[in-house]
Amino acid sequence: MLQQYILLLTHGAGAGIESEFMKSIVFKLNAAGLETIPFEFPYMKIMNQTGKRRPPDRMPKLIEAFKKEVKHYQVLYPKKKIIVGGKSMGGRVASLLISQLEEGNDKKPDSIYACICLGFPFHPPKKREKYRGAHLENIKTLTLILQGDRDTMGCKEEVKKYKLADSISIKFIPDGDHSFKPRVRSGYTLEGNVSMIAESIINFVNALSNQVAKK
Fold first, then answer.
1. Angstrom distance (rounded) from CA 78 to CA 163
2. Which of 19, 54, 82, 83 is 20 to 30 Å apart from 2, CA to CA?
3. Short-list 70, 65, 25, CA closest to 43
4. DSSP secondary-structure letter at 136?
5. Closest Cα partner for 130 from 99, 153, 159?
6. Domain ranges of the chain
């Protein structure tokens, strides 16, 4: 059932699709049978070409770039069901795209089936007052958020108190920071956490398949 989906997965603000985390996740998901296509935002492509660091583009431009990727793969694979997702900022962009489409009433029923956020940046580190998850209160598209227990942009204790839509499922990754890396003394490993993340995504997508089959 995984073969009917494509996951478009993008990166966070500072590290592109060639980061070890992104390469590992993409490899594991593809190996499990979920076609996962990584892509970079335009600013990251320029940064890689020039070798000079630069900040991400503003959110409207990032959302538009993600929307173009979705449309491209809808044309390229018309029979595939699109799932959008990303690490940190990339996941935020994916969820904002869905929210925008839902509010704009131009979201076709079969255009985007789900969203996956890997370490959602609910707020900047040490700035809880700058909350970035208001749009998650009303999102209707099924969404999976994978969050480290110790994430400085939204730890387990904080996230449990947030008001989130019923369409959102949250899986906490044991002792993980924003990069899902655990402390040595915790007994967990980064490799184990990455495998847990991949397994959680596969289970989430399989559940989507079961729901579609029942309709």
1. 35
2. 19
3. 65
4. G
5. 153
6. 2-214
**Alpha-carbon distances of 121 from 73, 109, 152, 156, 159, rounded to whole Å:** 26, 27, 9, 13, 11
Q: What is the mean pLDDT of the chain?
A: 93
| Cα 13 → chain centroid | 13
Domain topology for 2-214: Rossmann fold (3.40.50)
**Using one digit for the tens of pLDDT, what is the confidence trace for 59-99?**
999 999 999 999 999 999 999 999 999 999 999 999 999 99
Residue 18 has pLDDT above 80, yes or no: yes
Contact 128, 158 (CB under 8 A): yes
Residue pLDDT, tens place only, 175-188? 999 999 999 999 99
Return the closest-CA partner of residue 2 out of 39, 37, 30, 38: 30
Give the DSSP letter of residue 144: E
User: Which tokens hold the place of 135?
Assistant: 């749009």
pTM of the predicted model as reported, rounded to 2 decimal places: 0.94
Q: Are 25 and 198 in contact (CB under 8 A)?
A: yes
Residue among 174, 119, 195 at smallest CA distance from 152: 119
Residue 110 pLDDT = 53
